[in-house]
Amino acid sequence: MTEFLQHIVNGVSVGTIYALIALGYTMVYGVLKLINFAHGDVYMVGAFCGFYLSNALGADKDPSLTKALVVFVLSMIICGVLGVVIERFAYRPLRQRQRLTALITAIGVSLLLEYGFQLPSIKALGFPFPPGPTPRFFPQPFTTIEFDLSGVHLSNYDVVSFLLAVGLMLMLQYIVYRTRFGTSMRAVSFDSQIAGLMGINVNRVISGTFFLGSSLAAAAAILYAGSRPKIDPLMGLMLGVKAFVAAVFGGIGNVPGAMVGGLALGLAEEFVSGYTVSSYRDGIAFALLIVVLLVRPAGLFGTFRPEKV
Amino acid sequence: MDTSTPSAGPLRTLGLAGRSVTPLAVTFVITLIAYTLLQRAHADYPSIVLTVAGINIIMAVSLNVVNGFTGQFSLGHAGFMAIGAYTAAKIMLGLHHSQIVGLSPFISDQIFFFFALVCGMVTAAVAGLLVGMPSLRLRGDYLAIVTLGFNEIIRVIIENTPFLGQATGLSGLPRITTLVWVYMGVVATVMAARRLAESTHGRALLAIREDEVAAEAMGVDTTGYKVRAFVIASAFAGLAGGLLVHQIQLCTPRSFTFIRSIEVVAMVVLGGMGSVTGSILAALILSVGVEILRSVQEFRMVVYSLLLIVLMLTRPAGIFGTRELWDLLPRPFGRRRASPAGGTP
Amino acid sequence: MTTPVLEAKKVTMQFGGLKALVDFDLTLLPGELVGMIGPNGAGKTTAFNAITGVYPPSSGDVLVSGARVNGQRPYQICIAGIARTFQNIRLFKQLTALDNVRVACHHGRQAGFTAAFLRTAGFLADEARIARRAEEFLAVMGLADKRDALARNLPYGEQRRLEIARALATGPKLLCLDEPAAGMNASEKVALMDLIQKIRDQFGLAILVIEHDMRVVMGVSERMVVLDHGVTIARGSPQEIRANPKVIEAYLGDSYLEEKHMQVPVEAP
Q: pLDDT (tens digit, 9 = 90+) per residue, C33-71?
């Protein structure tokens, strides 16, 4: 029984991370109908932002709550801006072109971030940027306290990151469903042309969407890095693909769907690799993806819109 | 694409078998001479570069059949390469110490290798059928993700199968791939692609690319044809895989990740989706470029990615677009081409 | 009793809560020329889509030459004998005019992929036959000199004619034309209507035409069907339809009817 509960705890813990990243994919797909391959790498950049900021503030030697918060919020902002910049220079010029062109560009941006960050560090900068391929260790913002609830291992990190993740998701729900911006975003995702004619500034909405999604990815990165501190430039790859699967499972373009999808994937991975062979863990996401796309491509909550002939 | 009717061309007099065999025979002679010269000169490095370039050409031209002719975005080509590679490797490892009675070990090995390569193509084709049949119902980006997913699943399965050497792979493969084999493969692939393009089947694929709904309304079994294109492309990917592993003498899953698939996609996109000559040229450029950048290895992928981005922003049609070099060649080498009465592509 | 080329029996198309087509009945005998009219959104293209298999009917039956084709894929229905053009032209833009028509000849091929790779005599004969057939149909539609032009470079009127040539080349028993005269000027429309008659006479096909231009469709059709909001509101000869108050109401509204005391509003062309 405790094993079962432990799996649930672990599954939810990693599932909330998937959910936060999946939200970025789903929102961008909603407004642009583009799979932003680079999103997983924005997550990676978020982790490194946290790394550099923590070191700059001396958080490893002298951790404090304020410093942790500053790192958290600043990283979110920096990645949000990165997302906006990527959209502005790599995707916006291609909006009128075939979707395939934008998809290939997205792959290009993804590779650029991954391999750009693996380049040897520039000496003149004073701090190790680009970080290079060797993994770095993310400094702990506060000391780990492990506790044991009737056999189930938990740490304060798990609790904090879960609460923060849920808090962020609730905030996003509020933004998407209760603010003018959120309504504009949903309008653009239904029909960007008409939305534009209705007076919505489509460019601004899309930029805003990228900002939101990318900042959530950064948040996810920092929360994750708290308990799994090893970071490297390729960390976004696997995680990005898995989060994408989660978004598709929930119904790509659907915000609550991404959250459900993330949790479902986290739990599925935990249970399957826990009770069978653990080395198949990475394959679960892909298997789930294929099953979803073949059985119900719209995902749990998505709607399949057939082409008008 | 061109509107002339395929005719037997300058090889008319040779008859069916002759028409197909002659280009291969000519290639055989030329590459044998080139190979012998390079061996004599101990020019190992250029030899290797040319071999790798040839394998990349096979990969790019075969992927072009799916991505270029049929307009379906496959991101999992390396997976089929893997299947062909492992099949061929297992066969060669099994047969390497046997010998056909009455033939020298060398000739015997060549025959085994041919058999291994063909088996690799068959298994890769079957894999293409299994993956393609359910996936090709999906549109654009979804298909891309599913094929990428299958590529990774194949890799994960290999990494977990002791029979296939798991993550360390199969080693001790004989180094039997030579320039001759690779370029015979290249010519076979290019001939197949060209003959496909200039046939009613090829036009059906192009129609699917242009407007799938209309193609279906005109009597083309779009799903069936998409699958067929996928199977053909996978078969040739299997050929490339078999050739590759017997060049590097190692068969590991690391050679067949989706990064490899993306590299092939980059070649097809650079050359122009739909242009066989474009794929050939792009494969050559990128293969040689990789070698030139070998001294600055870390920058290779960065350059690749920038190339993709800049290409998509400035010239998404690639170098050749959908045109072919042989459309511009004079009559004996090209085909009978009526003068275009319309605009330029 | 000749087998009808097409029998649509109580075909209903429902998309979610919307009934785009309700109990649509239509029987066409070989060689008939029937016009289908109705205001925008009446369900005319939906009827086409149901007949050609683009969407399977929610209920009802579609029979081609007596054989039920419900749920078959469009390419199978094409091979069974129904060809169509599209409301928004769907040509293969990057292909030449000749190639566009050659694709339509594809389903008649004998030689498979292997024969194509080996360039057998059978394959070469196929290709020659397809090329000849395609050239014939281009000539019928007056596009012989444009065989090598890219479809996207052709002027609008020629694109419409090319679409018809392409549909004809599939060798249909029934040709469905979806607003073939859209965007044409008056003289082009007259020429097109003459062409449609000529095609019917030359190839002996049944033709079903959706059109908005009353003059055009009434001049060409032997009988007509009128749809409004998915429902068939009238059938009959052009003269009967012209005088039918329900038709007038659908197009012009009931206030018009009142004003005119239900007089015949449409003048003879």
A: 999 998 888 889 899 999 999 989 999 999 999 899 988
Among chain B, residues having any CB pair with chain A shorter than 8 Å are 73, 134-135, 138, 140-142, 144-146, 148-150, 152-153, 156-157, 159-160, 213, 262, 265, 269, 298-299, 301-302, 304-309, 312-313, 316
Domain total of chain B:
1
Q: Are B87 and B124 in contact (CB under 8 A)?
A: yes
Query: Mutation test of the interface with chain B: which of C99, C101, C110, C168, choosing the one with the most B Cβ atoms within 10 A?
Result: C99
Q: Is residue B276 part of a domain?
A: no
Residue B339 has pLDDT above 70, yes or no: no
Q: Is residue B65 part of a domain?
A: yes
User: Would you say residue B283 lies in a domain?
Assistant: no
Q: Label residue B8 by pLDDT band (50, 70, 90).
A: low
Tell me which residues of chain A have a pLDDT lower than 50.
none
Q: The whole model's pTM is what?
A: 0.86
| ipTM score of complex | 0.88
In CATH terms, the fold of domain A8-295 is ABC transporter involved in vitamin B12 uptake, BtuC (1.10.3470)
User: How, if at all, do strands C206-210 and C174-178 pair?
Assistant: parallel
pLDDT by residue (tens digit) across B124-141? 999 999 999 988 887 777
Residues B79-101 as b or e (16 or more Cβ within 10 Å = b): bbbbbbbbbbbbbbbebbeeeee
Q: How far is CA B298 from CA A119, A133, B302, B304, C10, in A?
A: 6, 10, 8, 11, 68
Which residues in chain A have Cβ-Cβ distances shorter than 8 Å to C86?
A: 309
B307 belongs to a structural domain: no
Domain ranges of chain A: 8-295
Whether B336 shows a pLDDT value over 50: the answer reads no
Q: Could you say which of B16, B203, B216 has the minimum Cβ distance to residue C99?
A: B203
Domains in chain C (CATH in brackets) are 1-81+172-269 (3.40.50.300), 97-166 (no CATH)
Closest-CA residue in chain A for C90?
A: A309
Q: In one letter, which amino acid is B135?
A: S
CATH assignment at residue B47: 1.10.3470
Instruction: With H, G, I as helix, E, B as strand and everything else as coil, classify residue C235.
Output: strand
Q: Say if strands C82-84 and C174-178 run parallel, antiparallel, or are unpaired.
A: parallel
- Chain A hits for C55, CB-CB cut-off 8 Å, are 309
Residue C265 has pLDDT above 50, yes or no: no
Q: Cis peptide leading into B162, omega within 30 of 0?
A: no
Range of the domain at B131: 15-257
The arithmetic mean of pLDDT across residues B337-344, rounded, is 32
Question: CA geometry: angle at C104 spanning C101 and C107, to 5°?
Answer: 145
